[in-house]
Specification:
The chain is mostly helical and about 290 residues long. The chain has 11 helices and no strands. It has one domain. About 75% of the residues lie in helices and about 0% in strands. Helix 2 packs across helix 9 and helix 3 runs antiparallel to helix 4. The radius of gyration is 19 Å and the shape is globular.
């Protein structure tokens, strides 16, 4: 349970850092690239085995992590496009609703059980994510020509979570979790640096220390959100479908409450209803293990 709680707290801290990006006008792309370098460094420091960079490509999970790193950058850019065209709420819903993908994968591939309480809990979790994420009275409005972007964010985010579960179960040894996580972030960092390098040669790059500081603040919780999620998946406290459900809905709930406490956000009645449903869904999903 402790690993799941720590993963939720680390992911919630990411929300706080992103909020501060807006307040201090930090260049998100540049901070994201620094964040990947920092997250990779955390994994390398945390790895207790003999570190040989030449031996890393021999790991069974290596080429998968390259794909995941590329997907990290791709989804980030798609989220930025979606935010610009359809708003932040659409991105939030698409990202958190993507929990459906690893849930379905767990039920079908790993033959995980789907009891009545768990099924109701999963459905309530999805409703809770939607209600807690919509911060306006009108709800979501996406033009047909822009619909492809939140769909891709939904699928990409779901594939990332599903891939992490599959790889940690099939290829990653117990002592390799830090190295596995570091390699994912390293791949994302390399691609990000290429993008920033292209900006530099085009003359559109502008260096400021606050972007570096933002990346440092983001990189540590970002690393531990993945590290503790993998540890939670291996803990046996819940099946993967339950872990992903509780993880995502708890992040939404905690982020919403922190928005009130730290940033004085005002919630609509449906947001409070979403928080209440989130609590009920967590109880229902967790009770299936008892």
């Amino acid at each position: 349970m402790i690993y799941l709680i720590l993963s939720i707290l680390a992911s919630t801290l990411i929300f706080v850092v992103f909020k501060l990006f807006d307040r201090f006008q930090i260049n998100t792309l540049h901070a994201i690239v620094v964040n990947y370098v920092v997250a990779c460094s955390c994994g390398l420091v945390g790895y207790e085995g003999a570190l040989s960079l030449a031996a890393i490509p021999e790991r069974g999970w290596f080429y998968f992590t390259l794909g995941l790193g590329a997907l990290f950058i791709l989804i980030f850019n798609l989220m930025a496009i979606t935010t610009q065209r359809s708003g932040l709420s659409v991105v939030s819903v698409a990202t958190k609703m993507s929990v459906v993908v690893p849930i379905v994968f767990g039920l079908l591939y790993y033959k995980e059980q789907l009891g009545v309480f768990k099924a109701i809990g999963i459905v309530l979790a999805l409703v809770a994510v939607y209600l807690a994420s919509i911060k306006n009275k009108e709800g979501l409005h996406v033009q047909k020509k822009n619909l492809i972007f939140p769909i891709l964010v939904f699928l990409g985010s779901g594939i990332i979570d599903t891939s992490i579960k599959f790889l940690e179960d099939r290829y990653v040894a117990n002592d390799e979790v830090p190295l596995f996580s570091a390699t994912i972030f390293a791949a994302a960092a390399v691609i990000g640096l290429i993008i920033v390098g292209a900006q530099y040669f085009k003359g559109t790059f502008s260096f400021t220390w606050k972007n570096v500081l933002g990346g440092l603040a983001l990189g540590v919780p970002n690393y531990f959100s993945i590290y503790f999620l993998v540890k939670a998946l291996r803990s046996g406290i819940l099946e993967s479908s339950g872990i992903f459900t509780v993880n995502n809905v708890a992040i939404v709930m905690c982020s919403t409450l922190l928005g009130i406490a730290l940033f004085r956000e005002r919630l609509l009645p449906k947001n409070w209803l979403g928080i209440a449903l989130a609590i009920v869904s967590i109880i229902l999903v967790a009770v299936t293990k008892l």
